[in-house]
Amino acid sequence: MPNLPDDLHYSREHEWVRLEGSTATIGITSFAADELGDIVFVELPEVGARLTQFAAFGVVESVKAVSDLFAPISGEVAEVNHALRASPELLNSEPFGAGWIARVGLADRAELEGLLDAAAYAELTAG
Amino acid sequence: MTQAPPTLRRTPLHDSHLALGARMVPFAGYEMPVHYSSIIDEHRTVRSAVGLFDLSHMGELQVSGPEALAFLRYALVSDPGALEPGQAQYSMLCLADGGIIDDLIVYRVEGGYLVVCNASNRDAVISQLASLQAHGDFDAAIDDRSDGTALIAPQGPRSPELLAGLTDLDLTTLGNYRSMRGRVAGVDCLVARTGYTGEDGFELFCDARRATRVWDALLAAGGEVGLRPCGLGSRDTLRLEAGMPLYGNELDRSVNPYEANLGRVVKMEKGEFVGRSALAAVQQTGPRRRLVGLVMRDDAIARHGYPVHVGGVEVGSVTSGTLSPTLGQRIAMAYLPAAEAAIGGEVEVIVRERPYRAEQVKLPFYRRPKPDAGLI
Question: For B97-103, what is the mean pLDDT?
């Protein structure tokens, strides 16, 4: 698995969390994006929505299929990436960067223990 | 004791697909490439240059004998009697109640007729044909050539240019829905100008043992014309843009040709055929429901199975839907009660329990530009 950013936390459902203070930016991994193929639609959560760790919070659609997005972390949505409306393909091209999905106010730091580091996620997706 | 899952069949080009990095999926009992790079890139390549498809999973049945024609005129809803030598027609095999067993293409060839059917319906088609042949005591033979036949389809505006360099045939004399026997890359092929993409293109039928030679030659020569190998993913988005039905989505045994906008294929005047009286009744009164094209006007993609509402009442469901790469629009097809089918009419598609507006549009969504010069 090429270039898994070291500074992120990963869920088994192939989402990532970048923590800056108490703000968590979330997205899907390159593994997820590659599995999906061309992403053509993202149903973003509403600002103000409360996410629950590991619960479905939105949808990502490829040409052929619809997949749920599962929140890697709990918290209130502070911001969503509107660029994904016009350019859902950012999830394929820049899943860890410009393809971020939402910014969430971290509700419970202890939840990070339920996530994987880059090495563990790489191992999960290797086999 | 748990049973092992049935093994998937492979086409003669299986190893080629793996070597090209294809993502393989099960389809109609076969392991097939769904895409090699990206569905959207492959789709665009067919519309602008050439895409190369392996369709060897499809069924090829040779029908021959002194009563082959009479037999097919009876079994099918179209009239193969109208075919000139080398000509082909789109057709359907229907039940007595008019329900569609399969949609297929019948080619008039040397020695009789070639019937090309969907992989998923091969057994059902053979079973129906065999039964009709026996009961009607037709002096005709049905020979299932599917396993020994490969089908390779270069499709796209540059496909004539590509193929011309690899064949002894004069493609300028091969018009739409016609076929000729000749050599492609030195391999004996039936070369047909047919396809399922809405573009100009060819379907090459050859001996399965020679498939790799034909495939490799097209791939090698294809570099000059921007060829890409294309999988079933783009095959589906291409045919949907072109307004073509897919058996299992738009067509099944509960659907008659008139509902599916395929009434023009049914030739009542040819005489008796399976389904004639049921279909004549539908033709008389008009079908109860009609297949329509939809373009989403709100932000959602309509997918197979999603409910369709008119005036707050559920009246049907989506049969196929996707994002159209060529049009950049979210397109779909659905059956609506005949009274509700009207170009411009508004419907709602229920997506994840919420209504999203869609507008009925004329099919097809996409038509290829007319050629400005003579045939290549």
Answer: 98
Q: For chain A, give the longest Cα–Cα distance.
A: 38
pLDDT value of residue B370:
83
> For domain A9-109, which architecture applies?
Beta Barrel (2.40)
Q: What is the ipTM of this complex?
A: 0.92
The whole-model pTM stands at 0.95
Over residues B346-357, the mean pLDDT reads: 98
Residue of chain A whose alpha carbon sits nearest to that of B324: A63
* Domains (range + CATH), chain B: 14-54+149-241 (3.30.1360.120), 288-361 (2.40.30.110)
- For the stretch B211-262, pLDDT in tens is 999 999 999 999 999 999 999 999 999 999 999 999 999 999 999 999 999 9
List pLDDT tens digits, range B9-53: 999 999 999 999 999 999 999 999 999 999 999 999 999 999 999
Residue A37: its chain B contacts at CB < 8 A? Answer: 23, 35, 38-39, 233
Q: CA–CA separation, B70 vs B62, rounded Å?
A: 15
Could B301 and A40 be called an inter-chain contact, meaning their C-beta atoms sit closer than 8 Å? yes
Cβ <8 Å between A64 and B322: yes
CA pair distance A1, B159, nearest whole angstrom: 37
Is B35 within 8 Å of A40 when comparing Cβ atoms?
A: no
By C-alpha distance, the chain A residue nearest B24 is A35
Residue B322: list chain A partners with CB under 8 A.
Answer: 40, 63-64
CA distance A37 to chain B (A): 6
Distance CA A126, CA B156 (A): 38
